[in-house]
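Morning, I've got a small favour to ask if you have a moment. You're getting the sequence in one-letter code plus the fold written as tokens. Thanks so much in advance, here it is:

===
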Amino acid sequence: MPDKNNNSRAVFFVSNSTGITVETLGRSLLYQFSSTQFESHSLRFIDTTDKAKEAVNTINNLASETGSRPIILSTLVKPELRDILSTVNGLYLDIFDTFISPIEHEIGSEAKLGMGRAHGIIDDDYYTDRMDAVNYSLKTDDGVGAKEYSQADVILTGASRTGKTPTSLYLAMHYGLKAANYPIVDEEIDSYSLPASLKDYKDKVFGLVVTPERLQSIRTKRRPDSQYATLSQCQYEIRQTEAMFQQENIPYFDVSSMSIEEVSSNIMNMMKISSRTFLP
């Protein structure tokens, strides 16, 4: 539990479904308050009055224990459940109330709130495009499936453990982009030129780097006490891959202090790539 005397605030993400929407938006908002530590709690599948009342009790009990008002962000759909949650002892922010009403006013049409609509799963094309892109990213992960690169929207490359796989999957899942990734291995790192598999697709290639210290930290968790994880090896690989990117005029940036959302957005902006998925 948060300590009354520290600078931590409890945040509850409340949803009648998976909570993906409210957590994504909520965390983006909370990232703006870097001087405050937030302790997050997710209350998912709150879809009955009993569950809504139980959620209120859970939140109120924590407020009493910590002496601090929690922040509650909610995407509950049913009005009766929203009414119950609004009685909570904390800062209650209803995402739908905040955004839906102004949109209704602007377009002159009333929203038909419903379970599942937040993620577009009800739209077959939207869902299929994303799943196709995810399958493509998995099939071309870690340098596998280079023969499929002609279909790629972007090919991420860089030293091992610089965030290529998660970024590829994020681009696929959220934007329907076919994102492949190719690790620069030892035998390629001294050439200062693109590996043969990438040469024909240079206009699709994007580089990722991190600081050597960050790379060492990541690799140590994966392979402790190995040459692979030494600071000198990490310094060498980052120096060599950056030199390669500069020599080949490959766009790249340092992702050490960036969220995966920021990394993906910057890649799309720099490569002038648009999302292949559209809301139904």
